[in-house]
Amino acid sequence: MSRFRVTIAMAAASLIGLFAVLLPTTTASAEAVTPAQACDYPDWVAGSWYNAGDIVRYTDGNHYIAEHDNPGYDPVISTWYWDPYNCDGGGDPGPTDFVISEAQFNQLFPNRNPFYTYAGLVQATEAFPAFASTGGDTVSKQEAAAFLANTAHETGDYVHIVEQDTSNYPHYCDPGQSFGCPAGDAAYYGRGPIQLSWNFNYNAAGNALGLPLLTNPWLVEQDSAVAWKTALWYWMTQSGPGTMTAHDAIVNGHGFGQTIWAINGSLECNGGNPGQVQSRVDRYNTITGLIGVSPGGNLYC
């Protein structure tokens, strides 16, 4: 983005008087016209074709610009196809502060693997502007806490980057998918904060994020921001064995218990494994306590 003296001895007073007359008129005109013109963009419509450079108003009230041609992908899901757009002048407004500070993150997970960086997490949140920023301060903090509680549980407090049981690795290729398993039948094992697995999940996440995860799933264990992004992709867009996404569970007031359903369903819920459920709830209570927000109701599933 670009951001926008001459001394004349004779007739200086006349020139100053002229500028004093002209400047207010010019400024008022710019203030009256520019914002109205800059904000006059159509609402985003799912399934409509958009060309690179098109600007839309999304359902969250924010504006987004198409970085690449796309068939109406959701602007808050894929930053390959869309970027946030500053309505009153164009350009990316830049990342906002995450509701959990780096100091709090370090305090919560002092023994984490260095791979799971706070910077990578914050970078990943830019791909999903609605994450931990919807519904006011309380709900935003509850969502951030719920996400960290579940992903910390999945990874042993961010110690493990990949699935530990290597005997499972060959099981995650579904050859019935039209795109197959180009990285190899044993390449789609669990990786990252939510342990992304299966070739179809790598394909879907890669398409949404604009990353070649189907052909190079190792990116998830090599790049911290990519790992966090895949976890947020699942959190924001996938209901898994549940009836809603984890994001919707929190922002619509259904409670932390529904986030567990979205991740592991009956394997843990409804008596499937109460110990695992309790582990997630304990982490959630610890995080909400540290950041000073009520955990809300419906903690169990």
TrEMBL record:
Residues 1-30 form the signal peptide. GO terms for cellular component: extracellular region. Residues 41-85 form the Chitin-binding type-3 domain. The keyword Zinc does not apply. Disulfide bonds join 173-181, 269-301. The active site is at 154 (proton donor). The keyword Signal applies. GO terms for molecular function: carbohydrate binding; chitinase activity. It comes from the Bacteria. GO terms for biological process: carbohydrate metabolic process; cell wall macromolecule catabolic process; chitin catabolic process; defense response to fungus. Pfam families: Glyco_hydro_19 (PF00182). Keywords: Disulfide bond, Plant defense, Signal. This is Chitinase.
